[in-house]
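User: My collaborator sent over this chain with a note saying "see what the structure looks like." That's all I know about it. Can you take a look?
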Amino acid sequence: MINALITVLSAWLIPLFIFLAITYAHFKGVNIFDTFVEGAKEGFTTAVSLIPYLVAMLVAISLFRQSGAMDLVASLLMPLLSRFDIPPEILPLAVMRPVSGSSALAITTEILQSRGPDSFLGRLASTLQGSTDTTLFVITVYFGSVGIRKARHALPVGLLADAAGFVAALVVCQLVFG
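Assistant: Without extra context I'll predict from the sequence alone. Here is the result:
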């Protein structure tokens, strides 16, 4: 019964929200179509201004992976991983998640296909995906869109938050699924 209610509610919540917003705007006298078009113009302008930042980030990610730097990082961290019973297969995901969401998703997909979604590694990869963020992407895109040039403290704090998310995902998965 509750699952059916949640299913129906989730299917109709967003359309209901849009309907309520349009109705409210109509009664407030807002010209909805013109406002929508103006917002779309601003969104397009913002998207075009982000292209150089996105290209730079994608080139940096490609260089990181193609140069073998990710493999070097993995080999350097192997002794630490084995000491704390961290599966070495999760390291590429932990390294790529702060850098690129699409690369991290591809790694997670490969883990799920090779090990299965109900394996410890599959559950850890899924939990890690939800516990961390694409810090470099966020800094590149959001800071670039508003013109912030100095990300002095944002980068270390974001990467520290990703590390905390990794540790939390590992601890929770070991306690719950280990």
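A starting point for your reply to your collaborator: Residues 50-176 form one domain.
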